[in-house]
C-alpha cells in the first residue's frame, strides 16, 4: 500500500519559491527592455552605429529648432513674383 504514492515524499523538494514582487517586477522590466532592443535591432549588423546616427540626427534637428526660434522665423519668407 505504501508504494502507490511514492512521489509525495519528495513533493516539498519540488516547490518553486517565487521572488518578492519588487524583484519580480524588476526582472520583468529587464526582460521587456531586452526584448524591445532585440526587436528594434533585428536584422541590423551594427546597432551601435545606428544608435549614433539616430543621436546625431536628433542633435541636428535640435540645433535647427533652436536656430529657427532664435532667428525669429528667418527660414520662411514671402515672395511676390
Automatic annotation (TrEMBL):
UniProt keyword annotations, A-Z: Lipoprotein, Myristate, Palmitate
Keyword Lipoprotein among UniProt keywords: yes
Gene Ontology CC: endoplasmic reticulum membrane
User: What Pfam family is a match for this entry?
Assistant: SVIP
Q: Where is the composition biased (Gly residues)?
A: 70-81
Q: Where is the composition biased (Basic and acidic residues)?
A: 29-40, 48-64
Instruction: Give the UniProt record's GO annotations in the biological process aspect.
Output: negative regulation of ERAD pathway; negative regulation of retrograde protein transport, ER to cytosol; negative regulation of VCP-NPL4-UFD1 AAA ATPase complex assembly; positive regulation of autophagy
Q: Extract the ranges annotated as region (Disordered).
A: 29-81
UniProt protein name: Small VCP/p97-interacting protein
- Report the source organism: Eleginops maclovinus (Patagonian blennie)
Amino acid at each position: 500500500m505504501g508504494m502507490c504514492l511514492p512521489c509525495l515524499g519528495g513533493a516539498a523538494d519540488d516547490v518553486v519559491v517565487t521572488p518578492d514582487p519588487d524583484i519580480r517586477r524588476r526582472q520583468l522590466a529587464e526582460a521587456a527592455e531586452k526584448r524591445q532592443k532585440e526587436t528594434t535591432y533585428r536584422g541590423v549588423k551594427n546597432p551601435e552605429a545606428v544608435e549614433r546616427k539616430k543621436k546625431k540626427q536628433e542633435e541636428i534637428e535640435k540645433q535647427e529648432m533652436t536656430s529657427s526660434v532664435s532667428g525669429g522665423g528667418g527660414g520662411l519668407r514671402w515672395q511676390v513674383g
